[in-house]
Design a protein that fits this description.
This protein has 141 residues and is α/β, with parallel strands linked by helices. Helix content is 35%, strand content 18%. It contains three helices and seven strands. Strand 2 and strand 3 form a beta hairpin. It starts with 21 loop residues before the first helix and ends with a strand.
Length: 141
């Protein structure tokens, strides 16, 4: 085509097609979906413990402070380890500074019952009433 324009247009006789190529858009969307599926469990944070199963509905942990008691009885507030003395002295400030409306207590299934009960008792002593326990939903019903 000498002296003419490339592509479609009124002079070339080819129709002009104004379409969006969605193939690359779908590729990007699926790539982002895979990335979010892989990173979402990592972003939950906290200390990894094997929580016991209980016949309950799944709980959506929203804003709030997560206190974890591992199998050795070590207390964690989010990712920070505390001794019992440090926990007792700073729990009110931690809840006010980093907490939301509810404090979530997560205990390993092998931790002695008294260790988790001690944490709950300290929360109650500190006038923190919105305490929830975290458990795995029991699907063997």
């Amino acid at each position: 085509m000498i002296g003419g324009r490339l592509g479609g247009g009124p002079e070339s006789g080819l129709p002009v097609r104004a379409e969006i190529n969605v193939t690359s858009l779908v590729d990007v969307a699926f790539t982002l979906l895979v990335i979010f599926m892989i990173t979402a469990p990592i972003l939950q944070g906290g200390v990894e413990v094997a929580v016991p199963k209980a016949p309950s509905a799944p709980l959506q942990v929203s804003e709030g402070l997560v206190i974890t008691v591992d199998r050795d009885g070590q207390i964690y507030v989010d990712d920070d380890a505390f001794t019992r003395e440090e926990f007792s002295a700073t729990i009110v400030q931690l809840v006010e500074r980093r907490g939301g409306p509810t404090v979530y207590v997560k205990g390993d299934r092998d931790v002695p019952y008294g260790s988790v009960l001690w944490v709950i008792g300290k929360l109650k002593e500190s006038d923190i009433d919105a305490v929830s326990l975290i458990a795995e939903p029991d699907t063997d019903r």
